[in-house]
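To illustrate the input format used throughout this study, we show a single complete record. The first block contains the structure-token representation of the backbone; no residue identities are included at this stage. The design step must infer an amino acid for every position from geometry alone.
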């Protein structure tokens, strides 16, 4: 999906200028992460090769790769740096806390931002992130799916359990952001039906303590009816 969309945007940008500058944000380490720089770079290069058809012959496409460090500080700092040089397209950042500030500034610069990440529910707000395009399945659709299940079965009590460090191998705060998206969906739809929502975050603790905490937090208040 990202390959096709990047190629499409390049066709559009190249209509406006013959020299196109692209900045790609991705973390260099650890390389095993889903959107590590060494995984993203080949995809971008394939997309550019695909876009360089006869129609774009004579255009120069310059790509700068930035190690974002999955940081909400390094990413916007790099965005300002390359904006001062003159850039036409941002690919990434991919991690939610990094892409959010970049995507907020991008409309002021009239720069499109394409991200295969940006999973968080809040990044769906087009008023704040006008030029952001997310080219991957996000937590919005997952949250909508869960909310439809609640509506279908008439469930009105939710206990959300999240691991603060769960699936950090995908990206930082993956589990927490996934659970938060369901919370946001519940808040948005509270005018339609009442839902009693609580969140419990699993801490790094011995298994016996974790078990007792879960049993204490998830008790008959959130259990089904007894017959």
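Output of the design step:
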């Amino acid at each position: 999906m990202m390959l096709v969309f990047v190629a499409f945007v390049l066709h559009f940008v190249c209509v406006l200028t013959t020299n196109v500058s692209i900045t790609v944000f991705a973390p260099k380490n650890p390389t095993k992460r889903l959107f590590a720089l060494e995984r993203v770079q080949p995809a971008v290069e394939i997309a550019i090769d695909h876009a360089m058809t006869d129609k774009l012959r004579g255009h120069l496409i310059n790509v700068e790769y930035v190690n974002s460090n999955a940081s909400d500080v390094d990413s916007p700092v790099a965005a300002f740096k390359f904006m001062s040089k003159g850039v036409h397209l941002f690919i990434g950042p991919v991690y939610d806390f990094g892409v959010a500030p970049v995507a907020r500034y991008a409309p002021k610069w009239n720069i499109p931002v394409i991200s295969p990440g940006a999973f968080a529910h809040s990044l769906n707000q087009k008023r704040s992130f006008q030029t952001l395009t997310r080219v991957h399945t996000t937590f919005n659709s997952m949250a909508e799916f869960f909310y439809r299940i609640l509506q279908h079965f008439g469930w009105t009590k939710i206990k959300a359990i999240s691991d603060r460090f769960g699936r950090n191998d995908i990206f930082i705060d993956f589990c927490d952001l996934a659970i938060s998206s369901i919370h946001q969906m519940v808040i948005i739809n509270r005018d339609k039906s009442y839902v009693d929502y609580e969140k419990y975050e699993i801490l790094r603790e011995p298994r016996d303590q974790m078990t007792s905490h879960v049993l204490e937090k998830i008790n008959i208040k959130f259990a089904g009816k007894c017959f």
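Structural context for interpreting the output: The chain has a mean pLDDT of 76. The CA atoms of residues 18 and 57 lie 9 Å apart.
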